[in-house]
Every structure is written in C-alpha cells, then in structure tokens.
Design goal:
With 235 residues, the chain is α/β, with parallel strands linked by helices. It has eight helices and 15 strands. The strands form four sheets. Strands 2-1-3-4-5 form a five-stranded parallel sheet, sandwiched between helices. It has a five-stranded antiparallel sheet with strand order 10-9-8-12-11, with no helix packed on it. A three-stranded antiparallel sheet has the order 13-14-15, with helices on one face. Strand 1, helix 1 and strand 2 form a beta-alpha-beta unit. The mean pLDDT is 86.
C-alpha cells in the first residue's frame, strides 16, 4: 500500500513514518511532505492509497488537502492527525477513516490502520504480494497465491498447482485455507481452489465439477460443497 504523510513538523513526520514502518513494514511511504503543495505534487507522480494528514499547517489545511485528494480516482483513505482535539468536528465533514491526537500512540495508530477500508486497487496489490512459502532442496522458495489455481492433499503433503508449475510442499489444507481464506474455497475433502479463477460448473453422471481459468482439467466438487460453489459462480 502506498502511503502519504503530511505534517509541517519534521519530528512529527519522522515519528509517524517510524511507527508506520514498525507496524506495517509492507507499506510503501511514497512521500513525507511538509505542506499540502508538496503533497499534491507527490500525488501527481503516484496516487497514495492512504494519506495521514496533519490538520493545522501553513497554507492549505489538512482538511482542505483532504477535499482535493477526494477528487482522485480512487481517492486515498484519510487519517487525520492533530494536536488539537477540538478540530475533530470540522475534520469529519470530509469523512476521514481515522482521527489521531498527537503525540501519536502506537496502539491507536495500529487500530486506525486495521480499521481502514482501502481501495480496490490497494486490496489487489496486497493480494498480489501474498505467497505460499516452502523449502525445496534446502532453498527457501515461494509461490504467489495470485498464481495458484488449486491445492490438493497428497498423503502428508500438498500439491500446489499454477498454470506453469506444480510443487509438492509440507502442510495441511486446513491451515492453508485459514491463512488465505480470502483467496481459496474448499471444493472437496482433499482440494481447495482459488475462487478468483472459477469459470464454469457442471454435472456428469451425478458427479459435480468446476473449471478454472488456464487450467484444462475438470475439478471434482463434493456434494457437500456443491451448493456453496454454485452460489459463488452465480454471484
């Protein structure tokens, strides 16, 4: 996720950046701006997914800056930061997703970030970074979850299948499904599939099946899971 931090106080900017990097090292701080003008200039090159804005600044205020950022498509999520709690009421007129009072508290910042409703673009970017990690011949390797079509249980191992590869790793379907529940759905006792690639479902001789994008094989669906899969494909 790309993050913009705007505060006219250098120490405040540095503290926010330090706390953010500690809490979410996967976030990318694209600019540390000291005023609205610098922030808008930075946004011309790369639109942020999240903007942490001080309210009281020389020139345009954080509230005025937030109004301009709302014109971007998609607009960034906004978290206001201020040393003046009495400024909260006018700030909420631009519908921020968080409001923090200085000095910034790590716990409060963590709660604000966890509660974010980020843009579809940011959600997609975060999903593309998710990976299944494993060790092969003593070497740490990984497969991007966004590339995986299905995972099958084979004895005490898992067969992870993408359009171009098939790797055997240690693990359990239950644990993998729990870790990546927004990606995978169970279709059989021994199989989970990436629901993003569901293209077709059908039935042959009382056996249910589904097809996945860039995967030629029909994947068997159990009677138990069939109603859920049918509902997914119809959404």
């Amino acid at each position: 996720m790309n993050v913009l931090i705007v505060d006219d106080e250098p120490l405040a900017r540095a503290r926010i950046a330090r706390l953010l990097q500690k809490l979410r090292p996967d976030f990318n701080i694209v600019s540390l701006a000291e005023n609205a003008e610098q922030a808008l200039l930075a946004c011309n090159n790369l639109v942020p997914d999240l903007a942490l804005l001080d309210i009281e600044m020389p020139g345009l205020s954080g509230i005025e800056l937030a109004e301009k950022l709302k014109e971007f498509n998609p607009p960034p999520a906004i978290i206001f930061i201020t040393a003046y709690p009495d400024k909260a009421l006018p700030a909420f007129a631009v519908a921020p997703q968080g409001y923090l009072v200085k000095p910034i508290d790590e716990v409060a910042l963590a709660k604000a970030i966890d509660g974010l409703k980020i843009s579809h673009r940011a959600q997609t970017a975060l999903k593309q970074q998710a990976a299944i990690e494993f060790i092969e011949s003593g070497i740490n390797k990984s497969v991007l979850v966004s590339d995986v079509r299905l995972v099958r249980s084979e004895d005490k191992y898992l067969r992870v299948i993408t359009p171009n590869t098939s790797v055997l790793i240690e693990g359990s379907l239950k644990k993998l499904l729990s870790e990546f529940e927004s990606y995978f759905v169970r279709v059989h006792r021994n199989t989970i599939v990436n629901q993003s690639y569901l293209t077709e479902i059908g039935q042959d001789h009382n056996k249910h099946w589904l097809k996945l994008l860039d995967f030629n094989e029909k994947v068997e669906v159990s009677r138990r899971e069939w109603p859920h899969i049918k509902q997914l494909i119809q959404q």
